[in-house]
Amino acid sequence: MRIVFGQRNFKIKELSSHEFGFTTQQDNHFDIEIRQSYFHIYWIPFFGTGKIWAIKKDGQLYELPAHYIYEIKKRQKIRSPWYTYTLPILLCIGALIYFLVEQVKESNYQKQDLKYFTEKVQLLDNYIDNPAVNEIFTLQDTKEDSSESKMYLKVEKVYADRILFTLIPGFFLNSTQVELEECYNDNKENLDTISISKAALKNAVNKDYDASKTYNYKGENLLKSNRLYVLVSVEKKFQPQINIAQTYSDYKVIQIELTNSSTAFKITSIKNVTNSIPWNTKLPMEVAAGTKSKPTKFILENTESDNFSFYNNKDYSFQVTILDSNNIEHSFLIKGSGSSNFIFSS
């Protein structure tokens, strides 16, 4: 792109020769014009490059003798107008506007971040007050910020003022190279347990916003190991992981093969939401535990009946209710058309 630049000038003052006594006769009168010369970029004044002193007579400009310039400067101070520096002024204004906009953005970010921090503290307190079996409380060592220095606490039992956890060290989880649930299921007999009061857990929640930004929170000796921890998150884990492997469907029959990659559970009910498929699954149906690498397969299918057909009505949806090994109930909605379907946790 071509950059346009150069020098131009504009009039800043016009004087009369009579004002300074340079002439006394009307016939000898002339005007003195003072012009500001400036360097421009795209015709916008950047900086002044001096002044032009000229005699204006009959529409023409002639060089003003030096002794006239000296006399005028003695009597008047001729300053360059502010707009001689329009471009740097505009740049300064632009920089100021940018700075102010960034300040507003930073202020809004801090307000939003503080709101998020406050909500997170409240959420962690709520989890501590109302824990559920199979939730994972994650602790971070305040002196060492790495995945291996984390401790994962699985809720086993809940009491009025304390919680019984199974400890899953971060370094141990990393060494097994499997998911948290699978690591627990494979090693639960060898993992330690600990009972921690709800009050101690609440003390391990960093409630100081400034300390959260400077990483100055000291933490709590929750595990009696002389290591200080902060509670960073609580997640619902060990939820049933059910997926559809494949589906066969014709006008009379539907057969859905599903997989379980989590703990064992039993199906307690199958209820049609739309359509009226006559399921022949014997309930309760026990489903063994599985993993992501070795999922357990099970099949839901219907009984072929003269009173049922998918003819002109291939759409269906039904709810499957299961009870996990901790007697916690979960529901899944399977919805589809023919052999194309999806499963949703509800």
Could you walk me through the main structural features you see in this protein, from its secondary elements to its overall organization?
The chain folds into 3 domains: 76 residues, no CATH class; 116 residues, no CATH class; 104 residues, Immunoglobulin-like (Sandwich). Helix content is 23%, strand content 40%. The chain has 6 helices and 17 strands. The strands form 4 sheets. It has a 5-stranded antiparallel beta sheet with strand order 8-7-6-5-9. A 5-stranded antiparallel beta sheet has the order 13-12-15-16-17, with no helix packed on it. A 4-stranded antiparallel beta sheet has the order 1-2-3-4. The longest helix is centred in the N-terminal third of the chain and has 44 residues. It is elongated, with a radius of gyration of 41 Å. The relative contact order is 0.08.
What is this structure's SSE topology?
Layout: E1 5-16, E2 31-41, E3 44-57, E4 60-63, H1 66-75, H2 86-129, E5 135-141, E6 150-158, E7 162-169, H3 170-176, H4 180-187, E8 193-197, H5 198-203, H6 209-214, E9 229-236, E10 242-249, E11 254-260, E12 265-274, E13 285-287, E14 296-301, E15 315-324, E16 329-337, E17 340-345
Antiparallel strand pairs: 1-2, 2-3, 3-4, 5-6, 5-9, 6-7, 7-8, 10-11, 11-14, 12-13, 12-15, 15-16, 16-17
